[in-house]
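Recall from the previous lesson that a structure prediction takes nothing but the amino acid sequence as input. Here we apply that procedure to sphinganine-1-phosphate aldolase from Pristionchus mayeri. The sequence below is the only information supplied.
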Amino acid sequence: IQMTSQEGHTWRLIVDYVDEMRSKINAGCLHLESWQVASYTLSLIFLVLYILDLAASEKGVVERIRARMFYILRSLPWVHRRLNEDLARAKKELEEEVHSNDVTRDFYKFIPERGLGRDEIRAEAELYRAMGRNRKEIVSERKTDAVVHEISALFGGTNPRDSHSFSGCRKMESEIVRMSLSLFHGGSTSIGVVVPSSAESLLVALSSARSLSARQSIIHPTVLASAAAAPALFHSAKLLGLRVKVVPSKRDGTLEAATLKRFITSETALIFVSAPNHSTGTCDPIDSIAKVALRYHIPLHVDCSLGGLILPFIELCDYGFDYGHDFRLPGVTSISIDLSRFSACPSSCALTLFRDEQMMKAAVFPLAEWPGGMYSSPSLSDCLDGSAVAAVWTTLLSTGKSGFMEITQKVVESTKKLATLLAEIDGITVLGSADTVMVAFETEKPYDIYHIIEAMRSKGWPLHPLVSPPAARFNMSISLARDDVVDAFLDDLDTTLVHLRNNPHLGESSASRAFHQLIATAADRWLVRELATERALAHYSVPLPPDNRKSLRFSVEGRKLSMVSDLMERRKEMTKE
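The prediction returns the following tokens.
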């Protein structure tokens, strides 16, 4: 290949420039010794690598600088003192919110000296059950409930992970996996594991991706996901030391394949998609994202924890749309399913399914140096509740495909009906597709969405807030999937909207609105994390009763203060007799 005169002239200019720069560098380093040149070179290399690492991390350089500035600001004495006062006040308010349904604020703080009787325990349990019970939630008695509880009781105290002692329960677990794989079109080499919760199902999938990335010498494995993904994803990633890169999404929280492609790097260990997501209940375009994952040889995880077994049966019900969410897509490598949501299973149980055994092997933790011999576990829990496994197994067999199709039709039809009627209300806009198990909607003035949520909650409706964008979401459970319940919800909502129209100042003075605006707009995210931490701790707080009487510092037969008075009255009656 002959080079033209113009190209040859360009290359000569480049060579001359490089030679000139080399001469200047050598002249500038004449006074340096060899060890100094080597140390300066290594320092420059490490500095460049550090800057590149910062640029590729979850928190960018600007965000890190901002966080450091806020940390210094919080360290100032007067700022620190003011923050502590505000957090103490917020802590008290959060405790009041958590215990708002507990009228007596009377707690068991000691184990009873003598065991309580069956009637006493049952009476206490009924009181606890009534606390905050959603009066709109209709408890449906299905014909399979009796047999589920019966079989579940037979396997109480068993552990399917101990295959020698509880072989039958182990067989149940493997059959649950195989039946679920058939629904999600797994092949003969597909495999899975039963875990206690949907959070752990994500942990298992991420553990597999991390192990596979280590084999490829990826130093900082990164997960690509939408901000609308399950919160358990971010928690599991933190536990495993994985980075989560939040990819910009559409308003309904779904990802786009073209946008996702721009964020793929050599550090990408997993692509995480939702079917549906936890923000608006909309499914990501998994078919197009699966093509991207397959092209770049990146594992793709599909999170079905919100919908459970709804999606496979939506397809069987022939609603006219295909989500493309399972192993029929070549790029899908793992799927997580929550069996306790819309699978009618009474116990908390979830699944992680893998396309092949190699993915599963990467998730298994083997220990060869244990003094007790060989040890291995496919999940974080080395012990699994056999009664929960038996309940899931019985539910799948007793409900059957026809039963699950009936459940799916009720849930989907109720969801679509609610979304359609909400869209007809002036000032309300439905977010997302609203065609699976969730309806999300936002409002326009004069309606404040957070005041609406607060008012509807006071009427017993399970309405939950969204911060970005400001909206509300309604999860359609099996017991709520009824026409009369949907109509009752809309009637209460209409009453709330009329009240807001007549009193527009209520939305502006809403404490809930101020709180959620703080969460959305706070520049220092440390404050939001601190409030979230206090909210978690409030679950285990033991505040004083409303009348501020001091609780007993000792126990009377281990009973609560409210029970002591009843006990004294009984003893007086016995003495009179």
